Amino acid sequence: MTNLIRAILVMTVAAVLAGCVKHEDYAPSDVARLSQAIQALGPNVDPAEADRAAALSYAYARELANGYNVTDPPIIHNAKVHSGKRERGLCNHYAEDMLRRLYKENYQTLDLHWVTSPPTEFRIIHHTAAISRKGAGPMEAIVLDGWRKSGHLTWATVAEDTRYNWRPRMEVREELLAKQAEKEARKAQ
Model pTM greater than 0.90? Predict the structure, then answer.
């Protein structure tokens, strides 16, 4: 009897774990929520463009992870890229490739942005794509982050995504270059 209970318990745990591993990447309701959020960016956002952008963002984040052969959490995958075991899959690759794909859609009522969260004591630099209504800046955008959950799209407005300190990419780049120049100048003295 004890063996039967143990067998049932093992099968139940295995079924639960298999369910956790083998799951749908996203549901139509996820795409619909992102589309609604994109439409809410402004009254002139074309609902059809928002639908297309939402569906593409979810599908392409997953496609990129498959293409990068992502099999681990992001930080582990980063180590594989840096050690030469994988060619691509860093956050900047996701940002670059996602933006390249979204630009092909030639949106008329939406703008695309590359946003960056500078490194801190406890966090590495992070890059991602973002989408806003036409004419709005990156700080009024929605983050489209495929890296954070290894190909499972994470999205939120820049303001709501408090895990990162999102800023325009070039602003962060200039700041980091200036810090590096200061460091090198101090070394030279």
Answer: no
